[in-house]
Design goal:
Helix content: 25-40%
Number of strands: 15
Strand order of the largest sheet: 4-3-2-1-11-12
Largest sheet: 6 strands, mixed
Radius of gyration: 30 Å
Bound molecules: manganese (II) ion
Number of domains: 3
Length: about 425
C-alpha cells in the first residue's frame, strides 16, 4: 500500500495585517501538518506550491522552513514541492529558496523547463519534474499560468510512451468552476485528457479545499493551512491523506480523507444597516453579535466586522473607532478589521432651477437632514435653524450667543 500526504499553500513568512504573530501562525500550522506526517509515516509528502509567501525570504522564515523539514528528513519522509506563483514571482532563471532547500537535501524540488524538447527526463536525472520509485511516479510542474493547458497536452503525449504506474500530477493552478465568478486558464477538460495516464491530480493555488473523486483523473486541492484572506476562514483548508492499493483490474483503489488544520479563530460579523435607524441601534446590534461569539480560547481571535445594506443616518455619524473599541473590549482580538460596505442613503437630488440662493440653500440642507432618520421628522425646522445660525455668524454674533440660540430652539421644539 502507498500512502501520501498532500499539502499546498503554506505561505510561510506571511505577516498578514503586518503582524509578526500571523507569520508565527503560518509556521505553527505547518508544524501541525509535520507532526501528523510523523505519526502517519507516509511514503512522501506533497507541497503543491506557495511554500513561501514571498519570493524573497528572510532569515526567520528560512529557519521556520528548516525546522519543519528536518524532522521529516530524519524520519525518512521525502517532501516533494513545486513552486507557486508566490515562490516564483515570474520566472527569470534565478535560483529560488526552494532550490536552496533542495540542495540542502531538505526537500525535492520538482521543476520543469517549458522550452525543453522533452519535458520528462530519464530516470536518475539531477533535476526536473519527475520523482519516481518502483510503484509510483510523481510529476510536479511549477506555476505556469495560461501556458499550462498546452503543456499538459505535451505531457500526455510523453506519458503515453512510458510504462504505466500509479501517477500523481502536482500542479499550482486554479481549476475553472471551483470558485464562482473566477475564470481560470485550467479547465476540467484539460485534465480529463489525462484519463488513463494520471490517477491523482494534486492541486494548490486557490486556498479553498475541494475534492473531485468522481472524475478521472481524480482532482484534489487541500486548501491553505491558515487563512491568507478573511473569506478563506469559512472553508478552512488542511491536508489530504491518500491511501492507494492495487485493485483486481490492474488499476488502483484510492481512499482520500481531508483533515482541517487547526487555525487561529477568525470571526466574521456582518451587520445589515438597512433596519438600523441610529448609531445607537447599530452599536446595540454589534453587542448582540459579540455576545454570541464563542468563548475565548488560547489564541486571540481575528474579528472582522462588515457593515452592509443602506445607511439610514449620516455617514459622518458612523463612528468606526467606537465600534472597533467595542469589539476590542468584548473579544480581546489580535486584530479587528472593520469594513464599511454600507451604501449611504440617497444623496440630494438636483434642486429645481430658478430658486434664489437662499431657497436653494434651504433645499440642500433639507435634503441632507432628511437622509438621517434621527432628524427626518424635524428636517424643515432644523434646516431653518441652520440658516439662522449662518446668518448670525455672518453678522458677527459671539459663539455663546449662537449656542444660546440653538439651545433655545431645540428646547422649544422638544416641548
Ligand atoms: Mn497561495
Amino acid at each position: 500500500m502507498l500512502r501520501f500526504l498532500h499539502l499546498a499553500d503554506l505561505h510561510l513568512g506571511y505577516q498578514q495585517y503586518g503582524l509578526p504573530e500571523r507569520a508565527v501562525d503560518f509556521s505553527r500550522a505547518l508544524g501541525r501538518a509535520v507532526r501528523r506526517a510523523l505519526e502517519v509515516k507516509p511514503d512522501f509528502c506533497l507541497v503543491a506550491g506557495d511554500f513561501f509567501h514571498h519570493r524573497q525570504v528572510d532569515a526567520l522564515t528560512l529557519r521556520q522552513a528548516i525546522l519543519a523539514l528536518e524532522p521529516l528528513r530524519g524520519a525518512g519522509i521525502p517532501v516533494l514541492a513545486v513552486a507557486g506563483n508566490h515562490d516564483l514571482g515570474w520566472r527569470d532563471g534565478n535560483e529560488s529558496w526552494l532550490t536552496l532547500l533542495h540542495h540542502l537535501g531538505l526537500l525535492t524540488y520538482l521543476d520543469l523547463d517549458p522550452r525543453a524538447e522533452q519535458l520528462l527526463p530519464g530516470v536518475g536525472a539531477e533535476s526536473g519534474p519527475l520523482y519516481e520509485t518502483d510503484n509510483v511516479r510523481v510529476i510536479g510542474l511549477p506555476y505556469l499560468g495560461a501556458s499550462l493547458p498546452r503543456l499538459l497536452d505535451r505531457l500526455a503525449g510523453e506519458l503515453r510512451e512510458l510504462p504505466r504506474k500509479y501517477t500523481i500530477l502536482m500542479l499550482h493552478a486554479g481549476l475553472e468552476g471551483t470558485i464562482p465568478g473566477v475564470t481560470e486558464p485550467l479547465r476540467p477538460e484539460h485534465l480529463a485528457a489525462l484519463e488513463g495516464l494520471v490517477d491523482y491530480v494534486a492541486l494548490g493555488h486557490r486556498h479553498r479545499p475541494f475534492a473531485r473523486p468522481e472524475t478521472s483523473p481524480q482532482l484534489y486541492n487541500p486548501g491553505s493551512l491558515e487563512a491568507a484572506a478573511a473569506d478563506e476562514s469559512e472553508e478552512p483548508g488542511g491536508w489530504f491523506l491518500a491511501e492507494v492499493e492495487p485493485d483486481e483490474s490492474g488499476g488502483w483503489r484510492q481512499s482520500v480523507t481531508h483533515s482541517v488544520c487547526p487555525r487561529r479563530p477568525f470571526h466574521r460579523l456582518r451587520i445589515d444597516c438597512t433596519l438600523l435607524h441610529t448609531p445607537g441601534d447599530l452599536r446595540h446590534q454589534l453587542q448582540t453579535h459579540l455576545a454570541d461569539l464563542p468563548p475565548a480560547g488560547k489564541r486571540r481571535p481575528i474579528v472582522e466586522l462588515r457593515l452592509v445594506g443602506t445607511l439610514l443616518f449620516s455617514p459622518a455619524a458612523l463612528d468606526l473607532d467606537e465600534l472597533t473599541a467595542d469589539i476590542e473590549e468584548a473579544a480581546q482580538p489580535l486584530k479587528v478589521l472593520v469594513r464599511n460596505q454600507a451604501a449611504a442613503g440617497q444623496g440630494p437630488t438636483a434642486p429645481g432651477e430658478g430658486l434664489t440662493r437662499a431657497a436653494l440653500e434651504q433645499e440642500v440642507l433639507l435634503q441632507a437632514i432628511t437622509q438621517d432618520h434621527r432628524y427626518r421628522h424635524r428636517a424643515g425646522e432644523l434646516a431653518g435653524l441652520a440658516a439662522e445660525v449662518k446668518q448670525m455668524s455672518l453678522a458677527g454674533a459671539a459663539e455663546a450667543e449662537i449656542f444660546d440660540h440653538v439651545a433655545q430652539a431645540v428646547e422649544e421644539a422638544d416641548e
